[in-house]
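Issue: ligand-bound run for NDP - logging full I/O for the record.

Environment: standard queue, default settings, no custom constraints.

Inputs:
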Amino acid sequence: MTTRQLDGKTALVTGGSRGIGAAIVARLAADGAMVAFTYAHSKEKARAVAAAAGGAYAIRADSMTGGDVEAAIAQTVDRFGSLDILVNNAAVSEFATIGELTMDQIDRMISVNVRSAVVAIRESLLHMGAGGRIINIGSINADRTPYPGQSIYAMTKGAVASLTRGLAHELAARQITVNNIQPGPVDTDANPSDGTWAPKMLAIMASDRYGTAAEVASFVSYLASPDAAYITGSSLNIDGGFTA
Ligand code: NDP
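Outputs:
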């Protein structure tokens, strides 16, 4: 039987019911990992993702609630006996200017995009051993925020990039890497390639197309692999030349 690069590894992906997260679940499972993932609302889609990934473990856990996130990690470890790879993917984006956004919308972005990642990392580190991988899904908007209406979302993704750099120093002695993938425009429900933002995005990029969720998942797979052991603390762009 062929050996796959993540055979024997265990993974948890937050927000795996749709979009980039669903592609990451599929890819890590195809690479041999045992994969759990969270979702908040899309129960039927989560079921379909779990089945397509050969029986991935779908956990309902709202990233707004720290207790849900902690419970998801505990359930993953109960099910698999370990946790080697954590992918912080769940996020919400509300695109409006700072004055137009309500404080509830702002708090939601900070809670789901930043606080839940901190909670997930703290809890995962209770279980993660040498060779562990923490992979955050940030955004290219942390580095380039070219249009009005992106400031708060970009701020949350900048926080994820800073968190990644600091944690690299805290975790290197444990041989755990932490990295931050920063996608540019990727065709999902959150940012459809035929949506109203698409012409504005394509106008300032080198590439003439949106990326695919599978392309981001392929990058996650590499960072999760033993080959990527010397990459840590990095924010790595997969953006079609959005920052070129
Ligand atoms: P989608 O909106 O298409 O999917 C979001 C996923 O996160 C869903 O599975 C959703 O599950 C889950 N999710 C949302 N809120 C919560 C919550 N409160 N608790 C648990 N899960 C939740 O987003 P994308 O796939 O486009 O984005 C994935 C990641 O990539 C995000 O971090 C995003 O910021 C980043 N990104 C995306 C880009 C793009 O162009 N698409 C560009 C740059 C970064 P459910 O439906 O069950 O709520």
